[in-house]
Here is the input.
Amino acid sequence: MSNEKLFEVEESPVALKSFLVWMLLAYLFALAVRYIWVDWASQFPDFFWNGQLMINTNDGYYWAEGARDILAGGHQPHDLSPVHAPLAMATAFLARWLPVSFETLILWMPAVFGALLVVPVMLIGRALQLNRVGFVAALLAGVVWSYYNRTMVGYYDTDMLTIVLPTFVLWGIILAVTRKRNRYMALTALLMILYQWWYPAAYSLNTAFLVMVLLYVLVFERRELYNYKLLLFMLLGLMPLGWMEDTVLILAAFVLFHFGGKRVNRLVWPLLVLAVAAFAWLGGLAPIWLQIKGYLLRQSVTGGGEGDLHFFAVSKTVREAGKIPFEIFADRISGHPAVFLLSLLGYLMMAWRYRAMWLALPMLGLGFIAMMGGLRFTVYAVPVMALGMGYLIVWFSQRLAASLAGESSQSNRMEWGVMLLLTAAVLYPNIRHVIDYKVPTVFNKNEVAVLERLHKVAGRGDYALAWWDYGYPIRYYSDVKTLIDGGKHTGDVNFPVSFALTHPQTASANMARLITEYTERNFRQERNGSYLKQMMQDYKVSDPEAFFAMLEDQEFKVPKKSREVYYYLPLRMMGIFPTVALFSNIDLATGNPRREPLFYSLVPLGQKGSKVIFGGNLWVDLKEGTMRMGRQTTRLNRLVAAELNKDGTMRLEERNFDPDSRFFLVYMKNYRRFLLMDRRMFESTYVQLFVLRRYDPKLFEPVILAPMATVYRLKK
Ligand code: MG
Here is the structure.
């Protein structure tokens, strides 16, 4: 038996009608699995708004804002609403035509589109006359761990098509190299354009596909002229001109080669050389370099150079970047390490037998980059590895059925039985994951209620000052502008907001007015450097510390007020408040962090007399004002008990103990938690305005005082 025969899968042809029925089944299966989350989440009234479950990804609110503004027919200048983003446009389009609410639409779009992955996976199977392989692969790919996480119901993001589209591109390439027909090279190039229109970062994977086709041609089929035509078409699809121009070029080239007869074949080489030159000249290589640089050089402190300010880089707090262990990596790609290894084996067998499968290496490679580059890449390997698994399963079930039943009529039935049984086995860990993956909605309904009230109070040009995690939801529900958000949160823009949240009220108010007016000014005129640098230039200060000292002055002259600023201070921020503080807890001249602020949110485990116990080695005596931490007993500086009144204000009871102590303790009665912190955090605007509701009436006016969040208007 030759090697080729050893790895052979023999499939009898499947009629188109049956194929489409299988496809529909695979699609419905992917949707049905996604319903598991809906079923779980529906038991929580907190997850609902406007009678529908809310979405569960923060970035989703960004696209939703864009779609809402398209439907409304306009938006405010410089509010960063993505009205030209394909996802926002597609959503607005569907919202106009479908008889469902906007909330229902954005909740379900990711599932309905994401489950479409079964289509290109099955088409790849069919292109290789491996319909059963495609069917098994589609059942698996549609629900695999990492793919599910990013296309589940409520995960409203561009992810819903970022794997579907390159898998279609791969299908186009496989059709082209196996069939050698003009229509398939045009199809491939057009699919590449569609993918890149949807997702600009697709550029790298599209380029990798091009390089892969080139390698494939050089290794296997150097003499085929068709292959060079395919390369030419792919290059046209990649041309950095805009999707419309590229489409025109491709259609023109298609007409030329399809109707030009044999004599145009001599144009292939000159055109290819021309296209390569144009590609390089138009700067087609630059984005690739930038990407490589971005991933390889992960600096923790941005800025640098002499006399520059050194800010804190977000990547320091993002967990995604960094190496991941093999088991997690394998789980994400296949659901289980064993499934992963078998899939890899299946892929190698399949590529050995069908060399067109080598063309899938860019997706596989990008998925494997996750080992170094972060979890978000694993999804790219999912469809290819699923095809590998499908191949192995069909191959094995054929061998088994043949040896057990021979050529009898039982053989086919037995083959299906074994195939479905094995498929169920590899699906199992993935469906287990789906059941266990209980993701809450981004906000709960009480938080959204606060934002709805803010929407009624604030103008569309006003600003909400809030940490970047809340930027997109605030913009969606309140339709105000934000200073930082999920896409705008580099160290230099985070600094002023972090400063305003973690400093006392006077300095905070001055900074809030400054940063708002400077942000607006920067939209209108060209300025260089960070906002902070501009401010220091304008106030003629060269030392950041001297500038911050100036801000503590009540009489500090802020720029003229052009609009309102609202502080949005949620309970939710308590858990990340130390991280928020990091961004302004830095020596800007050197980039070195200062002494870490002290801030702990503690849940009491029990009480003994006047002692509140938080754990074996940590308790506080409320009467004596002492605290036991490990082996040390220290005194508290101050103890504040805060209880909510009906009108949202706080009734405060304060007791002073040792004025030299570092420790301030706040008991938040209604929340059943204690906050342990140092003086700096105690005096921060967030703690004063949210936790204690103690504001300087010359600087702030309370607008909304709800248990989940407070909103204050800046009076400066
Ligand atoms: Mg707006």
User: Anything to note?
Assistant: DSSP finds 31 helices and 21 strands in the chain.
